[in-house]
Amino acid sequence: MVILALVLAGISLVVLIIGGVTILILSGQTNYRSGPEVGAEIMSGQVNQFPEERVGVQRSFFVGQGAAVERHATVDFAEVKAQLVAGNCLAMIPALLVISGFVGVFFFGALAVLFGVPNIWLGGAVMLLVLYFLLRMMIDFIRA
To answer: What is the per-residue pLDDT across 109-128, written as a single tens digit (0 to 9) for each?
Structure first.
């Protein structure tokens, strides 16, 4: 039973990765930055996560140009729910893959812990905690 739960958790992890990569490819936003400030940030190890804000960086040892490429993609429950209600199911397949993969990894991982750990109290506590998180996720999806 433990091996089956681990195999299903592994399949869910593959589904999660495929959905995440597909979301990044199809609906991601890419930000390009270049210039001496970016090069100084990279060389000093102070990479700015928010490019619209300026960061004071010491430029004593860096002279030249630098380039940074950042890729962001977000999908929230409200967008998924609105698209599903509108009947646009094909566009939401990557998001649904991510959600189902996340749920599968959590659930089957907790199931593997429940059956694999000799201490039934510890396995039960992990399973209850995962079920609580999945219930909260479902409530957030309904409220969105």
So the answer is: 999 999 998 888 998 999 99
Return the bridge partners of 34, or none.
67
State how far the Cα of 64 lies from the Cα of 82, in Å rounded to an integer: 47
Nearest to 142, CA basis, from 95, 73, 80, 98: 80
Query: Do residues 39 and 46 make contact, with C-beta atoms less than 8 angstroms apart?
Result: no
pTM: 0.68
Contact 59, 36 (CB under 8 A): yes
Q: Rounded CA gap, 119 and 130, in Å? A: 17
On the 0-12 / 13-18 / 19+ scale of CB atoms within 10 A, 6 is middle
Q: Where are the alpha helices (DSSP H) in the chain?
A: 2-27, 36-44, 77-85, 93-116, 120-143
